[in-house]
TrEMBL record:
It is a multi-pass membrane protein. Key component of the proton channel; it plays a direct role in the translocation of protons across the membrane. Its main location: membrane. GO terms for molecular function: proton-transporting ATP synthase activity, rotational mechanism. PROSITE patterns: ATPASE_A. This is ATP synthase subunit a. SUPFAM superfamilies: F1F0 ATP synthase subunit A. It is found in: Cell membrane; Membrane.
Length: 276
């Protein structure tokens, strides 16, 4: 860390600072790149591809191994969800859902690594700020939801045709009466924006809160030297117990948020296949 003996506020502020191309001055600034979010997002995706490819290469028609069983159960679960939600060609949709689930899960799992580990490694090479959890960065989660939004437009046009997609924008949900066309268009724009924002904000909010709790638990260790022998021992024991309990509970959050993101992606794509 670049701050010697930081206070609790300084510690949290330091760990929540991204490795950025420029210092962000306003809320929305597309010239700023969070290099840590980009790096760990791409790294997580490469890990997903590597693990799934490794499982596919080791697949046999005989008695499956543990990894093959795990991958087959995961693929079957995702495929069943896709069948029940999307009524149409699922050639690419089921693999897409599998990729989304695994990718978001791996990114979320970074939050299970001790919060000081990656910043400590970065400090060894002279990097003062590093925030490794991509899903605790609103830029990362909105980037994922923007990709889903693009898929909604793609499948809407693919299934209904370009003219059918445009006609639906102006005629749904209140009918084909010309005076209602502006209202219908406005309602559809709001619906797409709501899907885009809520999908990204839901994942961001849950992972951001979980990351913040880990920071607060980590601060207990810093008070071990300030409370004396018995107070320090109590703070150390409290940190271990609180950290373990929250870590075990956060495993569920990590998997649940990835599952919810995958399910909402399937639901939205299923809606793009249907007509109002």
């Amino acid at each position: 860390m670049s701050i010697e003996n930081p206070s609790a506020t300084e510690y949290i502020q330091h760990h929540m600072q991204h490795l950025q191309s420029l210092h962000q001055q306003v809320i929305v600034d597309f010239s700023v790149f969070n290099y840590d979010t980009l790096f760990f997002s791409i790294l997580s995706l490469l890990v997903v591809f590597f693990v799934l490819r490794l499982g596919a290469k080791k697949a046999t028609s005989g008695v499956p191994g543990k990894m093959q069983c795990a991958v087959e159960m995961l693929v079957e679960m995702v495929n069943n969800q896709a069948k029940s939600i999307v009524h149409g060609d699922r050639t690419y949709i089921a693999p897409l859902a599998l990729t989304v689930f695994c990718w978001v899960t791996i990114m979320n799992c970074i939050d299970l690594i001790p919060v000081d580990f990656f910043p400590w490694l970065a400090g060894l090479v002279g990097i003062n700020h590093l925030r490794p959890l991509p899903t605790a960065d609103l830029n990362g989660t909105l980037g994922l939801s923007f990709g889903v939004l693009c898929l909604l437009f793609y499948y809407g046009i693919k299934v209904k045709g370009f003219s059918g997609f445009i006609i639906e924008l102006f005629t749904a949900p209140f009918g084909k009466f010309p005076l209602l066309w502006p209202v219908n268009l406005l309602m559809n724009i709001i619906e797409y924006l709501a899907k885009f924002v809520s999908l990204g904000m839901r994942l961001f909010g849950n992972m951001y809160a979980g990351e913040l709790v880990f920071f607060l638990i980590a601060l207990l260790g810093g008070y071990m030297l300030e409370f004396g022998l018995f107070g320090g021992a109590a703070a150390g024991i409290g940190q271990v117990i609180a950290g373990l309990v929250w870590w075990l509970f956060h495993v569920l959050i990590v998997l649940l948020q990835a599952f919810i993101f995958m399910m909402l992606t399937l639901v939205y794509i299923g809606q793009a296949h249907s007509s109002h």
